Amino acid sequence: MARDGSVVPADPGAMAVVKKKTQSARSWILFDTTGQGSLLDVDKYAIMHRVQIHARDLRILDPLLSYPSTILGREKAIVLNLEHIKAIITAEEVLLRDPTDENVIPVVEELHRRLPRLSAGLQQHDLGGQNDAEAADEDESPFEFRALEVALEAICSFLGARTTELEMAAYPALDELTSKISSRNLDRVRKLKSAMTRLTARVQKVRDEIEQLLDDDDDMADLYLSRKVGSSSPVSGSGAANWFAASPTIGSKISRASRASLATIRLDENDVEELEMLLEAYFSEIDHTLNKLTTVRAIFVYVCVCVNMCNREQ
C-alpha cells in the first residue's frame, strides 16, 4: 500500500532484490488468507487503526528500540517480537515488518507458501488423488496458528543455526588453546565465550516466553483469534485438532498415541490443547538448543579455568 492508499503486490520470491531505501519504520508486508503479499508504506497510526492495537504494543515492534522477545495476545491480534521477526497476526491477516531484511526474507517466503489453506492449494496446483476428508480437515486449520507456527519454526531454526555455527568454531578454538597457550588463542576463546553468553541470553528469552504461555491457559486462550470472531470460528470442531496431526512440522513431533487422542477432541471456549501442542513442540526445540549452548559454555569455562591454573603454576 503506497502513501496514496494503493496496494503494491509483492512477490516473495523476488524480495531479495528489493532495495532498502524505503525500509524504515514504515516498511511492512501484508499477507491475507490466500498467502498473497502486498507491500505497505504506512505510518503507525494506519497500522494501529487496521489491527486495533495500542501504541505501546506497536512500540514493541519498533526496529530502532530494543525489546526482548515477546508474544502478546490482544483482543483482535497477536503481537509477535521474536528477534528479527516482528509481526502482527490477526484472524485474517499477517503484517510483517522489514520484509527485505535478509533474515526476514525466508519468513516471507514461508508465509507465502503455508498460509493458503490446503484445499485451495490443491486446486491451484491440480494435485488430484488426495483424500477429500483429509483436505477438508486441513482446511479447518486456524489462520493465526499457521502464521504463528511459521514464526516459531523460523526463530527456532535461526537460533539453532547460530548455535551450530558457534559450536563449530568453539571446539577447534579450545583444541588450539589446550595445545598452545598464547595471547592470540586466549583472545579468540574469550570472544567466542562472550558471543556464546549473548546468544544464550537470546535463546533463553525465547524459551522463557514460550514457557510463560504454556504455564497460563488464559494467555493461550487470548491467542485463539478465530474463536473470538464467532461461533463459526475455524478453531471450533475437531478439524483443527486433525490439522495439528497433519501439520508437516508439528505432526512429526507428536507421538502416534497423542495424535490419536487429539483427533477426538471437541473444543470449547476454555480448551487450549491445540495451541498447547504447537507451543510444546517448539519449546522442546528451543530447549534443546539452550541445552547445547549451556553444555558448550560449561566446557569453555572449565578449559579457561584450567588454562588460568597452568599460567599461575608457570
From TrEMBL:
Example GO molecular function: magnesium ion transmembrane transporter activity
Bilayer topology term: Multi-pass membrane protein
Keywords annotated in UniProt: Coiled coil, Ion transport, Magnesium, Transport
A cellular-component GO term for this protein: membrane
Coiled-coil regions listed in the entry: 189-216
Places the protein is found: Membrane
Primary localization: membrane
Superkingdom, taxonomy of origin: Eukaryota
The keyword Magnesium appears for this protein: yes
PANTHER family from the UniProt entry: MAGNESIUM TRANSPORTER MRS2-2-RELATED, RNA SPLICING PROTEIN MRS2, MITOCHONDRIAL
Function per UniProt: Magnesium transporter that may mediate the influx of magnesium.
Protein family per UniProt: Belongs to the CorA metal ion transporter (MIT) (TC 1.A.35.5) family.
Name the UniProt record assigns to this protein: Magnesium transporter
Organism per entry: Phaseolus vulgaris (Kidney bean)
